[in-house]
Amino acid sequence: MNASLFANSSSALGAPGAGETLPALLEDEIRRIYSRSPIYGRRFPLHPEALRWSCYREIPALSKREIVEAGHQSFFPDYREVERGLADRRFEYENTSGTTSAPMTVIMEDGWWAAQTRRAYRASPILREFADRPHRKCVLAPVGCSSNLCPYEDHPFPHRYFDGTVYLNLSSDPFAFSEAEWDRIVLELRATQPEILEGEPVYLSLLARAALRRGASVPSIRAVILTYGKASLQHGRRIAEAFPAPQVDLYGSTEAGYLFVGEAFRDDSRVIDDNAFIELAPWRPGAPDIHQIHVTTRGREAMPLLRYLTGDIVRSMPRGFRILGRERDLYFRPDGTIVSPSDVDAALPADFECWHYSLNQTGENRWDFHYVADGSARHRGVEEALSGFLGAGARVNAFRRKSIAPAASGKFALLKPLSAGIGSFSGR
To answer: Looking at the domain that runs over 330-416, which CATH code has it been given?
Structure first.
């Protein structure tokens, strides 16, 4: 392993080490993480000499499951520090479920998320102008985004306005939104006149439908941020019909912060160098351009992450990276070639339009394609196009639905293959 196997720019890693030693900035961050969180020293002690790549490779990767099992308290020498920090507001917390079966509690220092966001904006040509000046933003956050970061639930409008940001969600279930609730959301959106609209792509697609049905326009919007989940090209197109502004793909997680940013659907995502070091780990033989990512956070005081395995897969592209999605949501054809949600987008007929979809494998060669569309929509040609795309005798049945509910975690999956061993490959 060497610095070339990181997605960061060479300047972000610091001066190259002598011989097989690590670049200076990377080694400095690793030692700071060891000094702050005792969990790492218990897992793998470090020697005082300069770290070599061979030593770095021996540091075990950190998984979400390990964090859940060890508990957030294992990151602190004395848990009373956390209690005091929460009491005097030096720390805040968030719960996230993600791919784990139990909730993960994330402790973060006050202001950390806001700083992550500013650095992410600075790394984006589209968002850069908003990074260091006041601006208005509306956020339609998913179900799992709650507590002190994304407040909702019964708070009147003034109490959902924080530092120029309005949180539009008042319900734990977006698919229970009545027309009266969409009236409220669209009214608040128009009243705020935001420069930025941010949200989970499915939510924003449904918001676009609500706005179009009401003939509502928001000309103040200058950028749309797609985050919290994987966006499909169908989402992007429908959102653009109601809110014609440049779209940004902002990828990260509650526990690791913002990691990649790029223009949506342009395959140009880049690492937010000031937020994290991103190691590109080989995923499977024969696919050198596809990687697991290991994240080492930068400048983090509470719960810093070292070689953290996020469970997401990226592909190297000529202009940057494409976020393929969750490892468990990728499918392998019988010939070994990979299928990601981006490939499903490309396979759909050019004249097909929907607000949301999910392609679900139900048997070795059987798939169901669920989609949300208005009454006039037809899925002519969709079944044939997807069957041919999946190959090897695959059969696809298409069903128009009123809604597609998220998983228990509150997250959506555009592609749902069966478990490894039935037409898919786990990658491990």
So the answer is: 3.30.300.30
CATH T-level assignment (fold) for domain 127-245 = Rossmann fold (3.40.50)
> Could you name the CATH architecture of 3-111+254-327?
3-Layer(aba) Sandwich (3.40)
Q: For residues 329 and 204, which has the higher predicted lDDT (pLDDT)? A: 204
State the residue for tokens 């999946």.
390
Spatial distance between the Cα atoms of 105 and 255, rounded to a whole number of angstroms: 9
pLDDT tens, position by position, 208-217 = 999 999 999 9
Tokens of 333: 């054809």
Q: What is the mean pLDDT of the chain?
A: 88
Task: Tell me how many degrees the CA angle 191-198-202 measures, rounded to the nearest 5.
Answer: 110
Which residue's entry shows tokens 């696919």?
A: 287
